[in-house]
Design brief:
The complex is a heterodimer. Chain A has twelve helices and twelve strands. Chain A has an eight-stranded mixed β-sheet with strand order 6-7-8-3-9-10-12-11, sandwiched between helices. In chain A, strands 2-1-4-5 form a four-stranded antiparallel β-sheet. The relative contact order of chain A is 0.13. Chain B has a single domain, classed as 3-Layer(aba) Sandwich (Rossmann fold). The two termini of chain B are 24 Å apart. In chain B, helix 4 packs across helix 5 and helix 5 runs parallel beside helix 6. Classes of the chains: A alpha/beta, B alpha/beta.
């Protein structure tokens, strides 16, 4: 049985301009110790999906209008606010994109790490201080004991993200949700953080949901990948299969858009023309149809569901790109 | 390198920003050495890529080359003329020949001006075209960058990030420059849109014979678009060579670490890669380390590196590197 299972999640934002269908019928699961990557561009619903899992959607304007989030034998969407608070930061922890805005600038790093420990683990002052020093040392911050009294502005970007990770790991979470944790960092610092997360994952055997727009980072990190577009999952597969044998035209487009460092010579990038659709006014058919090079008549009228095209490989597309004809 | 093939020569360029203290009487107490003595050439018709991490001084180079900052020291020879010495009308005439595309397509377009006015403004400033002719030229430019010519009367907020960047490109092209500095033109865009802009820049280069100084922090993008690449670290260029050579035979330990840190979108390749993980963070440019600026994080550091600054020298075939270690 999966550790976390999300079924048909629907999250919408009710704005003056209309209803934004940010996440529309998304299902996912994570097994124990597994790393799931969720890839997509801005506004595809990847962050809203995990924020909905944690029930962190601002309400109003947002609302989770349907679906289930099964964790530990319960539906997290149905439990009380007190109950979900016991899960957040405890069994399921989260780290965010921008470590500067997600740390409180007027509290010391130590104070912020201790908060979770005292709240969820019932530690006293002394215990929590000792434990937070251990945690900071574990994420590779030198002289951890002294650095506990520093404020976030005294840390560099990479160190702040390390402190965030220390905070998230404080209560031995079963699942770590990472929402673009390296996007704001330089590439050498990104490599440090990715190495750190890999090491901690193997040591602590936790499951990870890693959200990113970067198909490069996810290639070296994930076991399984989901590609999202306009609030839908369009492709899902094991990491090797996805890169070796991408089947959805959007995934193909994304991979073609990326210049590769190891490319032999500069070839013209195959960009995806046009723009993502307006989530308020989604077409009735496939949301990618307007930008798709393989689109056929059916794509305009009917939205494709996720269907298996191989072992552990599913796509939501009417067209078989390997043959160029309708399956 | 023949002289007539060189469009831009930068020699020992320094840009230091003073750190002042005091409220009424401002005293200079130090300097941020953002660019600390760099030399390079840009050849006519080529794309020179400039890579480095945040705060290494790459945007400062861009701005001091175009004289948007007055450099502290050094020479910037554009077509043989030192821009730092030029003033007034002569400088203004020179500016027609070099333009810039900015990183943030939201901040670099005036929200109160129509697209037509934004793209046409350089034509007015430089007294090139007026009235109907100007309007027609603007529409032609919109077409060139792949936007609908009927958009002239719209405002920037009506466009997406990628479309705004196209407007920025059209503005840069309006005065028919020879040289365009692209300062992280795609960093703020989504992956699929990035490819559109990269392709556009490449097409325009071929069509108009443009020379680019292309600045980015993403080495895969820079390697894709550039003919030669300069790698910067803390105010210095540490290595400069052709795009293939840099990837296959990087000589500077920083370049090696940078290359190894760039993720490759292929799980099979990723599995076999060995990363050189740099410890710690970049030191402050207000107090760069003695000797080689990279010495505090270098895995090959020797005593000499902490005392002496390595010379930026050609080790053969136009491969420039600033390092004492014999790293071949």
């Amino acid at each position: 049985m999966p550790l976390l299972e999300v079924k048909s999640l629907k999250t919408q934002f009710f704005t003056r301009d209309g209803v934004v269908k940010a996440v529309d019928d998304v299902s996912l699961y994570v097994n124990e110790g597994e790393t799931l990557g969720i890839v997509g561009e801005s506004g595809c619903g990847k962050s809203v999906t995990v924020l909905s899992v944690m029930r962190l959607i601002p309400q109003p304007p947002g609302k989770i209008v349907g679906g289930e989030v099964m964790f530990d034998g319960r539906d997290l969407l149905k439990v009380s606010d007190d109950e979900i608070r016991k899960v957040r930061g405890n069994k399921i922890a989260m780290i965010f994109q921008d470590p500067m805005t997600s740390l409180n600038p007027v509290l010391t790093i130590g104070r912020q790490i201790r908060e979770g420990l005292e709240l969820h683990m019932g530690m006293n002052n002394q215990e929590s201080r000792k434990r937070s020093a251990e945690l900071l040392a574990m994420v590779g911050i030198p002289e951890a004991e002294e650095r506990l009294d520093d404020y976030p502005h005294q840390f560099s970007g990479g160190m702040r993200q390390r402190a965030m990770i220390a905070m998230a790991l404080g209560c031995d979470p079963q699942i770590l949700i990472a929402d673009e944790p390296t996007t704001a960092l330089d590439v050498t610092i990104q490599a440090q953080i990715v190495e750190l997360v890999k090491r901690l994952r193997d040591e602590l055997r936790m499951a990870i949901i890693w959200i990113t727009h970067d198909l490069g980072v996810i290639a070296g990190l994930a076991d399984r990948v989901m590609v999202m577009y306009a609030g839908h999952v369009v492709e899902e597969s094991t990491v090797k299969e996805l890169y070796a044998n991408p089947r959805h035209p959007y995934t193909l487009g994304l991979l073609g858009s990326l210049p590769r460092l190891d490319e032999a010579r500069a070839e013209r990038l195959t960009s995806i023309e046009g723009l993502p659709p307006d989530l308020i006014d989604l077409p009735p058919g496939c949301a990618f149809e307007l930008r798709c090079a393989h689109a056929i008549g059916k794509c305009q009228q009917e939205r494709p569901e996720l269907e298996s095209v191989g072992p552990k490989h599913r796509i939501a597309c009417w067209v078989d790109v390997t043959e160029g004809v309708v399956p | 390198m023949t002289h007539d093939g060189v469009l831009l020569q930068v020699r020992d360029l320094k840009m230091h920003f003073p750190i002042a203290q005091g409220i009424l009487i401002q005293r200079k107490v130090g300097a941020i050495r953002a660019v600390d003595g760099v030399s390079f050439d840009v050849l006519r018709g080529e794309t020179l890529g400039l890579v480095g991490e945040s705060g290494c001084g790459k945007s400062t180079i861009a701005r001091s080359v175009l004289q948007l900052y007055r450099p502290t020291a050094g020479q910037v020879l554009f077509d043989g003329e030192d821009l730092i010495q030029l003033k007034g009308e002569r400088m203004r005439r020179m500016r027609r020949r070099m333009q810039m595309i900015f990183q943030d397509p939201y901040a670099s377009l005036n929200p109160r001006m129509t697209v037509g006015d934004i793209i046409g403004e350089p034509l007015l400033v430089h007294n090139i075209l007026k009235g109907k002719a100007r309007r027609e030229r603007v529409q032609e430019l919109l077409h060139v960058v792949g936007l609908n010519p009927y958009f002239v009367n719209r405002y920037p907020h009506e466009f997406s990030g990628g479309q705004r960047q196209r407007i920025g490109v059209a503005r840069a092209l309006s005065v028919q420059p020879e040289f365009i500095v692209c300062d992280e033109p795609i960093s703020a865009l989504d992956v699929s849109i990035q490819a559109q802009i990269i392709n556009l820049l490449e097409e325009l280069q071929a069509k108009f014979g443009l020379t680019y100084l292309f600045i980015a922090h993403d080495l895969s993008v820079v390697r894709h678009i550039s003919d030669r690449i300069a790698v910067m670290y803390l105010g210095k260029i540490v290595e400069l060579t052709g795009r293939q050579e840099l990837y296959h035979r990087p000589l500077h330990p920083y370049t090696q670490a940078l290359l190894s840190a760039v993720p490759i979108p292929d799980p099979v390749v990723e599995e076999q890669r060995r990363r050189i993980i740099l410890e710690g963070d970049v030191p402050s440019p207000a107090h760069p380390p003695e000797g080689c600026h990279f010495s505090t994080r270098c895995r090959l550091v020797m005593d000499r590196c902490r005392q002496q600054e390595p010379e930026f020298r050609d080790v053969g075939g136009g491969h420039w590197v600033a390092c004492f270690a014999d790293n071949k």
